[in-house]
Amino acid sequence: MSSTVNPLDIMDECASLALAGKGFTKTNPIVGAIVVKDGKVIGRGWHSEYGKAHAEVMAIADAGDVRGADLYVTLEPCSHHGKTPPCVNKIIETGIKRVFVGVVDPNPVNAGNGLNILMEHGVEVFLGYREKLCAALIEDFTKRILTGLPYFSLKTATSIDGKLATRTRDSKWISSASSRTYVHYLRSVSDAVLVGVNTVIADDPQLNVRDVHSDNDPYKIVLDPHGRMPEGRKLEENPDRLIYVTEKGTETAAASRLRSKGAHVLDIECINGCLDLRELSGRLLEMKIMNILIEGGGETAGSFFDADLVDKGYFFIAPKIIGGREAVMSVAGKGADFVKNSKEMLETDMRHFENDILISGRFHDYSSHVLNLTEKLRNRCSRGL
Question: Catalytic pick from 56, 139, 295, 299?
């Protein structure tokens, strides 16, 4: 290999390519791939949409003649038939000489099989490049594989004293324009945006993507166990993208109205007057909805924390004091009995948007499973360069 090519730099670019597919791959992982020949990048690809060609196939098609070339890919190439043929077949058929893989596929159907098939056909395989980065890219997919549940991210925008709105329920705008633009980006890479009916009543939100360019139109999920959603809300204007969640066994006027308009109505069991969020999670995954951004109020946020379903948090904090005992808090629900039982972020990242601070981080770790798999299988492959 030419000394001008650094495998780690190439894998970094593969990871950037993978992100271009975020929001479009449904229950599939995002993946990026690059073909290098004679020390030059000749092809790039990413998994752009569920059911379409995978990153490796796209990169090979972009490259043209790949015989004797190297392929870099963030995730182990697939070895099974799904919506598309196995990627390992294409790699072998086209004469790729070496494959550099970020991490092992956590799906038991493929885990290690793709590597083995390539090596059995004379392809050199090098495993473990930018492992932490590549594992982080697919945490949502890994959670689905390990738990059978979607990946939930929570976004809040509060004053520095933790208020979502004033005592009069006014909330426009606590956060800055730059913060709100970033929220539209978060929507653009999500399969669905979720709120409670109180947010619909108070704010009449659209929950669409506006301030950033995106072709993705996420589903809008409204939790309304008791049929309180008023008629004429903006979310009704696009009913085929609306998922209305209500209590099983009760056909309210709101449910009937929305069903007749073509909205997706999910009837979910209630436990002590609250929707069973784990049953809802399974139903959403059946609809190929894997990434969900929670934007509801304090009660909605609290219910997901109480159910231990929040995987990642985005907390925008504006340097403002709202005060007031009756102001709306950011997280309600039952909460922790003791500080030692509180939900603690495993890691945090901090950045500024104008005067706002965004604190983000994970509450659950799914990357370690992929990293352990990768380390376990590394010795089967060729030694790194």
Answer: 56
